[in-house]
Specification:
The protein has 183 residues and is of the alpha+beta class. Strand 2 and strand 3 form a beta hairpin. The protein has one domain: 3-Layer(aba) Sandwich (Aminopeptidase), CATH 3.40.630. The strands form 2 sheets. A 4-stranded antiparallel sheet has the order 1-2-3-4. A 3-stranded antiparallel sheet has the order 5-7-6, with helices on one face.
Length: 183
Amino acid sequence: MADSDFEFLRTTRDHFPQLQKWLREPHVARFWNHETSDADIERDFGGSIDGTEPCEDFLVVRGGRPLGFIQRYRLADYPEDVALLTAHVEVPDGSLSIDYFIGDPEHIGRGLGTAMIRAFVDKCRADSPDATAIIVPVVVPNRASWRALEKAGFRRVGAGYLPPDNPIDDGAHYISRLDLRSV
């Protein structure tokens, strides 16, 4: 599967029903722990569309079919995240972070997450030539996620406590990094 097999479409409100459906899937809900009412989806994803939130959200499409979701943001736009991360790892100026999931259960466990991440790293390089690195914290029990990062070329640079998205987790995270250029 080639990295060029993926399209990244900026989310619109027309994508909200798809996001709602995926966020309710048990494999996504376990780690995203997201409220899914219409108002919650609007609150949490509308800002990216309107430009009031400094992240970029994308519907991931492969072969003309929606596959998943990925978002990116400059860590500097979220100083509280930088403060939490720098307690465990170096965060170079110009660093990005990403969040992602494969939506439909039929697509998990096939290497699509790794391929999607690789393709999105290429997009980040093209869209943000000044970005230095991508740093991604992943809660330790989410083995599929941190393994996908490793297979996509990220290296684990640290571990430690970060507030968990899901209160059933103890906050233990692995922190992975991929350098986009020399820092």
